[in-house]
Each structure stands twice: as structure tokens, then as C-alpha cells.
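User: Second chain of the day. Same drill as before.
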Amino acid sequence: MTRHMIFVALIGAVMVVPAQSAPKKKGTKYALLIGVSDYARNEMEDLKFPARDVIRLGEILVGSGSFQKKYVLILTDDPRVKEWNKNANPTAARIRKALENFAKRCEPEDTLIIAFAGHGVQFRGEKENYFCPADGKLTDRKSLIGLRSEVYRMLDRSCRARVKILLVDACRDDPRTNTARTTAKKRPELDLQDLNRPQNLRAPKSVLAFFSCCAGQKAFECPKLKHGVFFNFVIEALSGKASDIQGRVTLADMKSYVKDNVIKYVTKRLEGVQTPALMEKSHETIVLIEKAQFLKPVNLIVSKVVVSAKKANGKKWDNFLGRYFPDPYVVIQAGEQIKSTPIVQDTCQAQFNTFMPDMVRLGSTLKIVVRDGDFGKVHDLVGETTVKITARDLARGKVVLKFGLVESLEILFRK
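Assistant: Same format as last time:
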């Protein structure tokens, strides 16, 4: 289960210091996302997830509100992409034309993200690395897209965008089909570079290149995730799991989140080694997503609570038929909304699963009160707290709180 190749380019930033103190113009964010899953018969093996990777990435970028749909172009062979672009087949000609158009369109204050997902090859003795379009032929170099000679050159020399980003998720296994290897006797022998080799893909200084793995490693994909492992965590990061308290996702935060989670997942789940590497660094804070996608109200579920076995003064809870347990319930206030769970009798560990629709959104402040609901008596305070919900909380899907005599309160967030 190794990934043949995925390129996602997040391309580095050159900082321009204005001569005057005029307000900085906010640029446009562009994205060109290319994924090839289906290749010509007898040429290369088909892949499972490249199209899914770039479509989901496009949805995240547009859904965040940071990228307008009209500035995001997806070229892939998946029929679902027709709503983005009717002529979406990722042939070499279309890819080259799209690269040229985006380079010409970008102004100095703009951001450009380019993503490639598919097969990639390097021929022995050559420094060039090639991306394989849908109509690519391994026997014809001109039918392949040169990463150095075309993509790097275009970004460095022709594209004026202030922020240009290149992410590369590459595994250079032999992409040829078994049929191509065994029956195409008239085809010349291809000397493809071995996977375990020094990676020689250093980008120009104007380009930030984030590779999915280090030299000699394989980039894994996982059917359970339905993505390449690297791309899965890129998408998670941009969805909000790498966001700060304001909901922003920076390049640095994305890099840290992706690297940490790829290493952990591949090591524990796939028993392999994969270490993403950022080849160039930027001293500028590059904000990719201004607000993670959790802007609309989401549903809240009070899952469960664990209460201390004794009161704060050390006394037992009120006795009922020889049983010394509280009767806990939870009250939550968000703005003008106030909702409560039912009372669960005689337990220090109450399971509620109480559904509260459209209760929170990014930045909501929740006032939470837990009480002991003694029948016919004043309801003793077990604990109260206030919490502000961050994008990271919403991305994780839950918060677990400890306060007062509440040892644990689990609250879930669901769309």
C-alpha cells in the first residue's frame, strides 16, 4: 500500500517591504489542483485516491471562505469534478496551459497553491523528476511534466505571486502495468531510478517545497483513510485541526500537524517509516486559511459526566435508601440559549447523550453548571465553569473538562 506519487505545491514566500507606510493590499488566493487516477491501458497502473485527494482539498479551500471557487481549478478524471470544470481531463496540454494561465494571472500580493496527485518517475542518471499526466507515456519525455524544467521554472521566473507553495508526496515505485512490462516487447527498456536514492528535488529560493517523506522512504496510502496518509493529514490540518484559537491555519502550523501525525500513523498503524520534510523555511507568517470551516452553528451532545464520590467538605452525598450517590444533571448556556440534560439518579458516573441542536459555533462561550438534583431539596452545586470554543475543539469533535467536583465532563460537537 504505497503511494506512487502526489505533488501538492505550497510555494514559498518572498517578503516585500513597502517603501511607504500605505496599507497592505490583500491579495487573491488561487489554487490549481491536479489529480490523475486513470491512465492509458498498458501504460501505467491506475491509482485509487489522487482524484479524491484533490477534490476534497478543493472543497476544504473553498469551504473555508479563504478561496473563491472561481479561482480554484481542479483537473482530474473523476466525473464529480465537472461542476468545477467541464474540460477537466488532466492531459499534458491542459496541465501546461493551466500552469501558464495561473502564472500570468498572479499579482505580487497574491497566493498560489498548486497540487499534483498521480504517478511520478525519475529516469536513472537524470536530475529531472516527471509528473505523469493522464495521456503520459514513459517512452516519451515530452508527454510528461518536468517538475524542475517546467513547474519550478514557471513558479520562479514567471509567477509574481508573493506566496507560492509546492507540496510533494512522492513514492517512485515503477508505475508500469504488468502488461506493459511483460507483453510490450517492442517498447524500449526503461531504466527507472530506484526508490532508495538521495532525493535531489531542491526547489528555487522562491519556492517552499513540503515533501511527504525523506529520501529512501515510501509514501503510504491507506484504504481506511481513503487518502494517501500525507494528503489525509494535509486536509485535516486545513479543515481546522491545525488552527489557532482564532481559527487561522498557517503554513508552519500545517507543517507541524502533518509531520507529527504522518509519523505517528505510519509507525503505529502501518508499521512503516515516513517522515515529511519541509525543504525551505520562511520567516514570514503565511496564513493559508483565515477561518477554519466551523463558522456555522453545530450540534452539541452532552455525553457523560464523572462526579467526585464525596462533597467538597468530605461528606457523603445525601442518603437515599442507604445509597450515597448524587443525582447529576448538566445545564449549558450559550448566548440566550439555555438547555439542560435530564437528571440521572444515584450515580457518580452519568451517561446522558443529550442532543442540543445548533448550540455552538466557532468562538462561542459556554457557561456550564453541574448540579445534584435531589428530589424536593435545593440542588447542590457540583461545579461550574466557562469555556470558549476554538476551531481546534470543533475539529477534534469534543472537549473534556474538569472543574469543581466534576472529575470529567465530555461534550461532543456534531454537524
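The first strand starts at residue 5 and ends at 10.

User: Great, on to the next one.
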